[in-house]
Amino acid sequence: MSDAILVLAEHLRGEISEITYAMLGAGRNLAKALNAPLYAVLLGSDLAPLAARLGAADKVFLVENPQLNLASAGTAAALLKELMAQQQVGLVLVGGTNVSMGIGSVLSVRTGLPFVNFCKKISWDGALTCTSQLFGGKILADVKLTDGRGVISIYPGSFPAEAGKSEAAPTTVKLELPVAASTVLFKRYIEPEAGDIDITKQNVLVAVGRGIQSQANVALAEELAQALGGAVCASRPVIDQGWLPLSRQVGKSGMTVKPRLYLALGISGAPEHWEGMQGSQLIIAVNTDPKAPIFDGAHYGVCGDALELVPALAEKIKAKKGAA
Amino acid sequence: MNLFVLLKMVPDTVEELNVAPDSPALDAEFLRFKLSDPGEQALEQALLLKEKHGGTVTVVALDAPEVDEVLFTALAKGATRAVKIGGDWSRLQSFAAGQILAAFLKAAGSALSADALVLLRSQAIDDLEGEIGPYLADELGVPYADVVTGVTVTGNSMSIIKEFAGGLRGEFTLPLPAVLGIQSAEKPPRYVPIAKVRAALKSAKIETVDVAPPARLARFALERMYKPEAGGRAQMLEGSPEAVADKLVEVLVQQGLI
Ligand SMILES: Cc1cc2nc3c(=O)[nH]c(=O)nc-3n(C[C@H](O)[C@H](O)[C@H](O)COP(=O)(O)OP(=O)(O)OC[C@H]3O[C@@H](n4cnc5c(N)ncnc54)[C@H](O)[C@@H]3O)c2cc1C
Ligand SMILES: Nc1ncnc2c1ncn2[C@@H]1O[C@H](COP(=O)(O)O)[C@@H](O)[C@H]1O
């Protein structure tokens, strides 16, 4: 039997994050291939109800300590290092999310193991091959971990969460591990800004990206959204420019939306954006770049200038609706 | 405050990216480099902090194509000093970059003064080996926070806003000195007219320093780099804007959307 595989189970506000199930699913396959046990570890407080949901793991370790809720990368990494030594762990999976980002990097420095970021596929043929997506999804890279040891950051949305869900009651083990006092202290949550419009409740979303080019052009999208009976949302660069409020951001840090129609204008389709809108029923993308990654996932694509198309489309929709 | 901004050049993904025929790396021939978006944000956040608390902003970059222009632009925006760390860093990965930048900051002496704050972006599109921020903070032995969208400094400590998901954010406190991975500054990055950049080119200068390169530039060998196969390719609609608009209306009608 090989050294164990450990999943750092992510949780936020009393809920297990989806990424945790994705990691358990990936971990299950690896455990089978490597003939290794699959462990999960929960850090924080009130962990018992969370542990009950991790039945896909052979064993769940609980490290109860309120200081470990949203622990800093340094604090979490120190604990994981200890756990790896104590429980003979050779491979660690962490979530590539804003919550867990950084922990894997520090763990790899502290243990001397390699760290592989943005991993979306793992295969085993005597060595472990991790496939990562780089440059906003435009390039893939294969990295080999020859002895199967390392720390891997799992890219959200790459592995099916279903595979890591199980009704089984896991074996849980409480561990007393020394928790280094952290100087990074959590104070409070700041709730999402309500905003004038809740984009998660819209049937139709017209999304604008950097390709919309100016704040003035956002009005074109507004007009189209109005014609369609929907609202305008945006990718991060548009929000960061201050062209639309934060409540309109879709993606990794922003909202997750599942409208009936997602019309993406001048959005390249970076993984961090894709993460927030991949569940849309119908995705139509308009982009001047025929190779934009958004076309790989969209249902319909238009290779062209959104600024030219949008006014024409708005007019025709209005005409159609007027005629109906 | 003693502010450091670490600027990283990344390939502009608006250009087509190709893999070099002979090695698992991007084909340098058609690459155009630019400062990453969050790099712009980190610089803006530092300039805002300098305006509020006084002190200096030192921008630091490892040598890379087009980096001089980025450094002069930073000076034109209000940075105090610009430093370029010389060397061939084309095969450099995050861990080694963290070591180099830590060595520079330690040698800078004042770097870890009580009022030092190192700002960088929280993650780059080519960070296969991990984010640099946490490596760097570990090397320097100072606290680190990332995905930061707001910084309020009071004396020797600060409160930061970190983004989670779904618009949810959290407030944390940590002491100075520290390393912060910035996701967005509190205000959109300022615009600097090209004339001001030209003026900086004439009046200001970039300091070049050498740091001994680490023994290994990367911790693992890349096996292969390739372009993803287009998965489910979208059905492309072609024609003039008018014609495409007609086709789209048809699709929308079919789907019961209008
Ligand atoms: C931790 C982290 C969290 C992040 N969170 C988010 C998030 O929540 N949401 C998010 O969106 N991003 C997020 N990002 C950023 C993400 O990685 C991308 O940078 C971003 O999504 C790119 O936005 P974009 O597609 O609008 O811009 P770009 O990638 O610059 O794409 C612009 C596109 O417009 C096209 N274009 C240009 N002109 C026209 C025209 N006239 N007509 C049509 N097309 C045109 C171009 O061909 C290009 O494809 C995050 C990044 C990190 C590291
Ligand atoms: N080659 C580099 N030169 C200068 N700064 C860098 C370099 N690599 C990374 N950094 C800094 O570290 C930040 C985070 O890097 P990364 O972790 O690679 O996203 C970058 O945005 C820069 O601020």
Write the CATH architecture name of the largest domain in chain A.
3-Layer(aba) Sandwich
Q: Can you identify the CATH superfamily of chain B?
A: HUPs
Query: What percent strand of chain B?
Result: 25-35%
Which class do the helix and strand fractions of chain B yield? alpha/beta
Give Rg of chain B in angstroms: 21 Å
List the main descriptive attributes of the protein structure presented here.
heterodimer, A: 324 residues, alpha/beta, Rossmann fold, 2 domains, 5-stranded parallel sheet, 9 helices, 17 strands, 28% helix, 28% strand, elongated, B: 258 residues, 9-stranded mixed sheet, two-stranded antiparallel ribbon, 6 helices, globular, binds flavin-adenine dinucleotide, binds adenosine monophosphate
Provide an overview of this structure.
- The complex is a heterodimer of chains A (324) and B (258).
- Chain A contains nine helices and 17 strands.
- Chain A is α/β, with parallel strands linked by helices.
- Chain A has a nine-stranded mixed beta sheet.
- In chain A, helix 3 (73-86) packs across helix 4 and helix 5 (215-228) packs parallel to helix 9.
- Chain B has 258 residues and is of the alpha/beta class.
- Chain B is built from six helices and 13 strands.
- In chain B, the strands form two sheets. A nine-stranded mixed beta sheet of chain B has the order 9-8-7-10-6-1-4-5-11. In chain B, strands 2-3 form a two-stranded antiparallel ribbon.
- In chain B, strand 7 (144-154) and strand 8 (157-163) form a beta hairpin.
- In chain B, helix 3 (94-107) crosses helix 4.
- At the A-B interface, helix 4, strand 7, strand 8, strand 9 and strand 12 of A face helix 4, strand 7, strand 8, strand 9 and strand 12 of B.
- Strand 17 of chain A pairs parallel with strand 13 (235-237) of chain B.
- Bound molecules: flavin-adenine dinucleotide (FAD) and adenosine monophosphate.
